[in-house]
């Protein structure tokens, strides 16, 4: 648990990060992702409770730091240091560092080897932070929004790089706001809300928790359509002016036809259930 004054910002959070797996933490702004991850690696003290890495309790400046690679949301690198100097100086801290030139190659940084960090784009800076976190061949990698500021193509490359490290035995815990990448690249997911873990499992398990594999989204449904939805027996709720209905593809196709008959105006989108729908279901079930 972590409290600031009378505010409890993390409560009863237990995160298991498995060797060889990519574990992702998703949730709205302020849900406690960064706080939980920083407690896990000893950067913040919990008000109560304990964090362990490889069975050892995490204490500030403890032994866990040798096996842990960390990339934080705010890069702490001085702007005028060059990429090669960042990686070289981190490498000098370890007995058997990774090959930093190869690492730079895997992360698309060789072309920027001699550039100062403050001359790099936001996405490239993020890659330098990730490379620095990987130099010590960590057993455990903690990444706070590793793909923020990275373009879509770069995101996929970055996740492939990280998944390769995971396959080599590293345990990875990463937070993200990109629900598509969480669905696509996570081996297991934790969904956080208001400082608690709301859901946990493989992306498939988390998606299944919404109660159906298909969804309808109706933009600004008319009162007559809302009555049809309410009488349909399907789980449903509202997100702003959008009505969301969860069910099976056959059942929701029948409902879609009924809704069009009642009123052909409002736009209806149907498709496979996505994490954004699970978020919505979770929030209305909580109320
Ligand atoms: N030093 C602090 N003092 C007081 N409150 C804090 C402090 N650090 C974080 N908080 C509060 O703790 C809550 C959780 O913040 P946290 O940064 O862990 O959320 P998050 O899920 O990582 O958010 P984001 O997605 O925006 O990064 C927020 O309400 C935040 O305002």
UniProtKB/TrEMBL annotation:
Cited CDD domains: ABC_DR_subfamily_A (cd03230)
Keywords linked to the UniProt accession: Antibiotic resistance, ATP-binding, Nucleotide-binding, Transport
SUPFAM superfamilies: P-loop containing nucleoside triphosphate hydrolases
Location (main, coarse): membrane
Gene Ontology molecular function terms on file: ATP binding; ATP hydrolysis activity
Protein's cellular compartments: Cell membrane
A Pfam match: ABC_tran
GO biological process: response to antibiotic
GO cellular component: plasma membrane
Residue ranges constituting the ABC transporter domain according to the UniProt record: 1-219
Family: Belongs to the ABC transporter superfamily.
Protein name: ABC transporter domain-containing protein
Organism: Neomicrococcus aestuarii
